Every structure is written in C-alpha cells, then in structure tokens.
Amino acid sequence: RFDGIEPVPYVGARWRYMMALLTWNLRLTERVRWYSDVGWESKSSIDLERPVGETLFLRSSGRVNWFEDEEGLFYSTSLRLYQSLGRRQLLTYEWSNSYETQPEDRLKQVRLRLRWAQRFIREWLLLELAPQVAWREDDDYETALGFLVRLEFGFGTQPRLSNPRARR
After folding, report:
1. 84, 110, 120, 168 — which has fewest CB within 10 A?
2. Considering only CA atoms, which of 33, 38, 30, 31 is closest in space to residue 6?
3. pLDDT tens-digit series, residues 29-42
C-alpha cells in the first residue's frame, strides 16, 4: 500500500474455516498483518449464514479488530439480507453497529444501508449505488445521510455481485 507517495511494505497471513451447522454455515476468519509504518494488526470475524427461500440469503457477522498502534479493540456486528434480482442485479439490506473499548466500551456508530449492484455493458463492469443513514457518536448521534457510488472494473476475473450464493 502507499502512504502519500511512499510505499508501505507489509506481510500477512489469512486463515479461513467454514463448517455446516444444520441449516446454517459458520465461517471463521483470522487475518494478521505487519505493516512497516504502523506495526501489527489482527482482524477476526465470525459469520453465520443461510439461504432463505429461492432469492434471499441471510448473513449475521461479528468482527473484532486490534491494532498495535491504537488503544483497545474495535468490534462490530452486522446483519445483511441479500436479494437476488436475477443474474446481473443484487439488492443488499444492511444494519451494522460499531463499537470501541477505549477509553470505555461504547457504541460508536449505527448504520442502515441499502445496496443495489448491477453488472452492465460487460461482465467485468459493476456499478453499485448505496444510500445510507448513520448515527455517529462523534456527531452526538445526529442523523447523517450518505450515498455511495462505486464503479468496479475486473481484470482477469469478473467483479462479484457480493452474492454469497455465487460462492457456493
């Protein structure tokens, strides 16, 4: 990665394990990296997921992040419902909560987001539009509206619609 124009070398490893639990899948992931400018970081996650009917997929996630150069832990919970609108379109309904443990354990942000993704023109071109509403501690939990526009080009592979069913 780059910090301004300076390259920042890093090395890391990722471990992922998935197992079936009756009608749910459980996925555990651990990613550890060392960056030359900020030191070590660890990102751990647990996901529970399952299909719901023919066009829906539900995922509940928990994440814990630790950074050597920062105090405390940063963790989050999220719930996502993916709705397939055909082979080229996907809707995702998201609710996420973000927390910090320092200087005290507290809720930092609540966010609701609706994502619409569409492959267009070519299979390797993906457009994503996502309105959102958030309540952040830094803004005294006042309502903050946002809108994400993402254009993704896939070279060598086609960009995924982030449809969990497609990864089976």
Report:
1. 168
2. 38
3. 999 999 998 999 99
